[in-house]
Amino acid sequence: MTAISSFWRAMPRPALLGLFLFFCAGFADGALVPFFPLWASSEGGIPVGAVGLLFGCYAGGELIAAPLIGGIADRVGRRPVLIFSSFGVGCGFIALFFVHGVAATAIVLILTGMCESVLHPTILTAIADVTAPSAHPRWLSMARVSSSAGQILGPACGALLVLISLDAVFLAAGGMLILGGVVMLVALGETIGSGRSAAGDRGDEEEEEGLSALLPAAFRDGRLAKLLLWVVLFEISGNWIEAVIPLYARDAGTLSPSGIGTLFAYAAALTVGLQMPVSRFAETRSALWLTAGAGLSTIVAFVLFMASPAMLSLIAAVSLCSVAQMLVGPLVPTAVNALAPPARRASYMAASSVAVDLKDSLGPSIGTALYALAPRLPWAAGIPLVAIASLGLGVAIGRARHASTIGVDAEDIRPERSATWSTSPATEEQF
Question: What fold does the segment set 208-431 form as a domain?
Answer without folding.
Answer: Growth Hormone; Chain: A; (1.20.1250)
